[in-house]
Amino acid sequence: MLRTKEQYHEDLFAMRPNIFIGGKPVGRDDPRLRPGINVLDITFDLAQTPEWKGLATAVSTVTGAEINRWAHLPQNPQDLLQKQKLIRLGARRAGGCIQRCMGHDAINALAICTREMDDANGTEYHRRFLDYLKVYHEKDLDGCCAQTDSKGDRMKRPSEQSDPDAYLHIKEEREDGIVVSGFKMSITQAAYADEIIVLPTRALIASDRNYAVAFAVPGDAEGMSLITRPVWLRENDKEGAAPFCTYGVSDCVVFFDNVFVPKERVFMCGEWQFGRRLALLFADSHRHSYSGCKPAVSDILCGTTCLAAEANNIANASHVKEKLSEFAGAAELAFAAGVAAAVYGKKTDSGVFFPNEIYANVGRRLTGEMIYHEYNILTEIAGGISVTMPFDEDFEQGKNAEAMKRFIIRNPNLSVEDSLKIWQLVEHIGASSMASWYKIAGVHGGGSPIMETIALNLGYDFEDKKRLARYLAGIDNDLDDSKMRDQIAKIDTQI
Ligand SMILES: Cc1cc2nc3c(=O)[nH]c(=O)nc-3n(C[C@H](O)[C@H](O)[C@H](O)COP(=O)(O)OP(=O)(O)OC[C@H]3O[C@@H](n4cnc5c(N)ncnc54)[C@H](O)[C@@H]3O)c2cc1C
After folding, report:
1. E strands present in 236-370
2. Cα Rg for the chain, rounded, in angstroms?
3. Ligand 1 pocket: which residues have CB below 6 Å?
4. Its domain of life (predicted)?
């Protein structure tokens, strides 16, 4: 089944109210959540649009029916490439984060890890997970991923924290399920997701056993509160507003206060040895998703900078051209890393095709390092107007309105209306609450930069490079190329 956005709204607004904004309970129809819901609507619309069938949709591996691609388990490189393209397409339309990839990455991580836990321990998590996924596909559900714990004192392990709720944990194990408590934080779209998919956030040791827990609960599960921070251009989303002003996002602190999770929805319960594996499977899949969304953010920044250059009538200046080319480098290198991660990925025992971790991490690290630089290019080309421009009303009413219409023109070839719209966009993209959200998401979303460094130090074959240098230095007589040959042969069969 493919839900329409109207069906999604109907299901959403029927949920038990457990959202809190500013200390007050609100329904999911609260207007402050609407800008985020508008983004989700794009994902439902794309799946209904004939020209995007096959990109926005896929065939379920569990039901055989047509499903939204966000719920699909990739089976081959093509599926990963389709996901990457879908993210770039959706994110361009939403003016940024499309918000569906975290749920997608979580179900992939669970599909792989549940199978590996079962193979190692004889558990039955994989069957449980596939039963859950069947319903997820049949009902066309949308899940967010709650991985990040509030973490308390960063220098202490989960089991060493003075407040055990700093990391979500199992409080009680029963015949029919588990009871969990704790805080997850920065959870995007939880306030308007059907399901919250919970994963551990880090590597664990034996004493952290109760923190090794993964499960899914409906967004309105009993005992769970979503303390929500919506972000959007609240002063600019009036009637007839530009598209960018109608989209936004919400992030939640998810407080689990003795929440009961039925056994059939529990996918890890105490297997601390797999904590790191599950956390990394999500993170690496998510870093691959960034190779779709970050190029879209670069596209938006690049386009806005082009318009600012045009409005300043400096589009042909050589330093402008040089700076614009940096956007192309950031967007397309990140995209290329995603393509390489898909092509060089591997089939896991679960059947899920997983992106190559090295390419996923180098792409994500590049975009994380570039993000403030890209905003700086926009600022340099636009000048200071993004933070000093008078309010919209000053151009519409009052004694100076006509004078302000002359004031806003810099390039005589542009109309008053277009000049004003360009500088308003520059402000919204470059100097608003949304802009700050995108900058910080660009650094920390998918894990802080140090996490990519750790992943690369773990996975990159430095010994291979050392052997090469030893051969070139004349220390070793032979150069062993067999690994490269095997890799080339593998790629030939995959593409
Ligand atoms: C906009 C946005 C959206 C997000 N959406 C989601 C989401 O949907 N789901 C989700 O699960 N998460 C989400 N996140 C969370 C994101 O994954 C985290 O922000 C990221 O992993 C960093 O964690 P943190 O914010 O707790 O920072 P910290 O981990 O506290 O990092 C802060 C600094 O402390 C350092 N540090 C931390 N621990 C140690 C240590 N033990 N030793 C030495 N140094 C240390 C780090 O290297 C870093 O420099 C989102 C974040 C943002 C900003």
Report:
1. 249-262, 266-269, 346-347, 353-354
2. 24
3. 102, 144-148, 151, 154-155, 186-188, 251, 437, 440-441, 444-445, 447-448, 450
4. Bacteria
Q: What is the mean pLDDT of the chain?
A: 96
How far is ligand 1, taken at its centre, from the CA of residue 197, in Å?
18
Rounded to an integer, what distance in angstroms lies between the CA atom of residue 26 and that of residue 10? 16
Q: Tokens for 264?
A: 């059939």
The Å distance, Cα 322 to ligand 1 centre, comes to: 34
Counting atoms of ligand 1 from 1, which one is nearest the CA of 145?
A: 9
Separation of CA 447 and ligand 1 centre (Å): 6
What is the number of other CB atoms lying within 10 angstroms of the CB of residue 325? 10
Which tens digit of pLDDT belongs to each residue from 113-124? 999 999 999 999
Residue with the smallest CA separation from ligand 1 atom 30 is 154
* Residues 6 or more apart in contact with residue 224 via CB below 8 angstroms: 18, 196, 217, 254, 255, 256, 257, 259
Name the nearest CA neighbour of 374 among 293, 322, 292, 298.
298
Nearest Cα neighbor of 80 from 446, 355, 487, 490 is: 355
Which residues of the chain does CATH 1.20.140.10 include?
280-459
CB-count burial class (<10 Å; 0-12, 13-18, 19+) for 126: buried
Query: Under CATH, which number does the domain 280-459 receive?
Result: 1.20.140.10
On whether ipTM exceeds 0.85, the answer is yes
pTM of the predicted structure, to 2 decimals: 0.96
426: its two tokens = 């520059």
Extract the residue ranges of the chain whose pLDDT is less than 70. Answer: 494-495
pLDDT at site 495: 67
